[in-house]
Design goal:
Keywords: DNA replication. By secondary structure, the chain is α/β, with parallel strands linked by helices. It is about 45% helix and about 10% strand. The chain has ten helices and five strands. Strand 3, helix 5 and strand 4 form a beta-alpha-beta unit.
């Protein structure tokens, strides 16, 4: 892979960014500690940060993958070369096929880093990629469900590298914030979600925000096809909850 650093890197390997994974629709309550994290990532995406590496972690559904893809969306808008790599999809492949040549890009975003546990070949390949990106003047954004110290990484050199850069933890939303996030996301999709319907979904669907937003997307599609409003009976029918 030898892309021109002056042009945005097109996604390959069947990997694509979600259209709705943007900074603008990442829900941030007032006085949310995640606001500082988002500000830092916006600067990182634009190339306005001197830090060569950022490690972002948080529990499932906290928004790590959303923000990694948001960084890529902004990097593309800024004309930077980049690649987004979700290890959950790519781990079965040969690491050298995936990682070789990425140091020629301005930004490399690697998601699901916790999945490196128990995969020594990938750990070794990731260690060498980290060094190549740093030596080449590029930037590396890593996402995981645990902190660098909390990962069970056998390769000591990689464990050390992962603790070199900036480390941010995403704080999960409270139930009241999830309720507000559901209603905010529905407005962004062009419809209003009554509070009683949002509460019904929140109390019966999987609790993390990714699953909640997936339910909302499914309901939106179903309501458009059926030309019906989203009510509690409609939610029961479509989601079987």
């Amino acid at each position: 892979m030898t892309p021109d650093k002056g042009a945005p890197q097109q996604l390959s390997l069947g990997v694509s960014l979600r259209d709705d994974a943007t900074f603008d629709n990442f829900f941030l309550p007032e006085a949310d500690p995640n606001r500082q994290v988002v500000m830092a990532l916006r600067a990182f995406a634009a190339g306005d940060s001197a830090d060569p590496a950022v490690y972002l972690w948080g529990e499932a559904g906290s928004g790590v993958s959303h923000l990694l893809q948001s960084v890529c969306q902004n990097a593309e808008a800024a004309g930077r070369s980049f690649q987004y790599l979700p290890l959950a999809e790519l781990l079965p492949m040969e690491p050298s096929v995936i990682l070789d040549g990425l140091e020629e890009l301005e930004l490399v975003c690697i998601d699901d880093l916790h999945l490196l546990e128990g995969h020594p070949r990938w750990q070794t390949a990731m260690f060498h990629l980290y060094n190549r990106v740093k030596d080449g003047g590029g930037q590396l954004l890593l996402g995981a469900r645990r902190s660098p110290r909390g990962l069970d990484i056998e390769l000591a050199d990689l464990r050390s590298r992962l603790q070199w850069g900036l480390v941010f933890q995403l704080q999960p939303l409270s139930d009241s914030d999830k309720l507000a996030a559901l209603q905010n996301r529905s407005r962004l999709r062009g419809f209003d979600l009554p509070e009683d319907v949002a509460l019904y979904i929140l109390h019966r669907a999987p609790r993390h925000t990714g699953a909640l937003f997936a339910c909302l997307e499914e309901l939106d599609r179903a309501s458009l096809m059926a030309k019906r409003k989203i009510t509690i009976p409609f939610v029961k029918q479509v989601l079987d909850i």
